[in-house]
Amino acid sequence: MSTTASTSATTSGERTRRPAEPSAFRSPAFLLRTSLARTAVELKELSRSWDALVFNVFFPIIFLFIFGSVFSGDVAPGVSFTQYFTAGMAASGVLLVSFQSLAISIAVERDDGLLKRLEGTPMPPAAYFLGKVGLVVVTGVVQMAVLLAAAHLLFDVDLPAGPQQWLTLAWVTVLGAAAGTLLGIAYSSIPRTGRSASAVTAPVVLVLQFVSGVFFVYSQLPGWMQDVAAVFPLKWMAEGFRAALLPESMAAAEPAGEWQLGLIALVLAGWTVVGLVLCRTTFRWRRRGDR
Amino acid sequence: MSSEPAVRVTDLHKHYGARRAVDGVSFDVAPGQVFALLGPNGAGKSTTVEVLEGYRARTSGEVSVLGSDPGRPTPAWRSRLGIVAQSTRDLSDLTVTEVVRQFAAFYPHPRRPEAVIEQVGLADDARTRASALSGGRRRRLDVALGIVGDPELLFLDEPTTGFDPEARREFWALVQLLAADGTTILLTTHYLDEVEVLADALAVIDGGRIVATGTPADLGGRDTAPATVRWRDAGGGWRTERTGQPAALVARLHAQLGELDGLSVHRPTLEDAYLSLLSSTGQPSEPEVS
Lengths: 291, 290
Hints:
By secondary structure, chain A is an all-alpha fold. Chain A is 65% helix and 2% strand. Chain A has 11 helices and 2 strands; from the N terminus they run αααββαααααααα. Chain A has a two-stranded antiparallel ribbon with strand order 1-2. Chain A starts with 27 loop residues before the first helix and ends in a 9-residue tail after the last helix. In chain B, strand 8 (201-206) and strand 9 (209-214) form a beta hairpin. In chain B, helix 3 (96-104) crosses helix 4. The interface between A and B is large, with 51 and 63 residues.
């Protein structure tokens, strides 16, 4: 049963408006403007979020300081534990500022209604994700720079030996961050609420760090643990950073007897594709049951 | 152009399995009108509005919002709407100015953020973080984000729930300001005083159906319903009489007795009309999925 109410307009004056052309919302300039607005907001929010700064951005630097101060031995002649550990912390750091930071923040923003609010505006959905990418790029660069500077100045850790090693550091960072970003966006759909997001995400990253040769020398881990770690990106990122930071002589100590740079690139690119597919198929702008 | 309704809803259904959250709703909202969708909690108000906002897919029915089907939302269409959702708890670490500036960047012809902040009465709190705002002022921020894109149509979903009386009155003044500016407003509420003050037209929804439409003055025929006339007679005792012609009765009393002490004429209030509509439907409302 339904009734129709038709009532005449009571407006005093029709406003002269010029609705924007649909093409205006597809222009690169509009995407750039909205993405920059989102990036600026992301960075402001991070700068005011003490816990996210400590646990995502400065965590590897804090750990470098603790482990570097406690363990002073060498893992091989002329290669200090701290040198080896710096490669692991660089890999952890990339995973934290990409995967962990996005998985938690997006789960929270979905639960508190920000994503739904944004969905109701003309903002291009890509702008939200590019804002996250901007956040990962800025925090990733700052973190890596501070980590390497601290390791070098406080613990005499050698920086990458030459252009080749710097290049390796750069592409492993970019590919690792790309995989971590997309997997983090996808993983954000798993926590059921914003409050549980940290608890559902952080242990995964912690366990990965233990099995992937971050806290322990990878070649000394049990074989089965190495096999498990080899499925996930962190092990490959850590190996890539070892190739950038350790002397060539250390390649022989790897289980494969060499730095598997080609395979590292392939696995990280593969995870990036998996992350992209998961994002495209599973991403939700609203809480479960809101449909 | 102006004769076309801003919102036209015809036989809208939204079912969740066997539950019919919206069960055949129809109404029109004229451009420039403040239209209230009134009903108890769980009546289907928010579900209806979320279909119109482009958030929810409908089960069936015809819906047109600013000439477009909200089931296929486009950015150009969204840029002409403002949405103030039922309750929000996001944006906590940003200041009022930062949030409004951000949302201004999403629209092609935004209003000036500083002017919007001033208009919603948050100038004093421009540098306050959203998390530090009181409930009423937080709601003003929601409205600021709803109007910063200079919308033709503004949705206000239960905007004053939890307000104290003073905050509610201040909020009404804000809505009247927006309406005077020519913005079409679709308001959902369960407060009758709010409807009486703000709405040009209204529909009462209960159990997923429209049970009455009209204006606050004539809902349920209350403008022509029998009135109760009350006065004090010469001996000081109270007299009451129910009549369909109260003016005639008062004129007759005046002719007989002159000026009357304690004279009052009562039509059924909007609340009387509303409650009689709800009780006559005889089906309890179900809790709403939100």
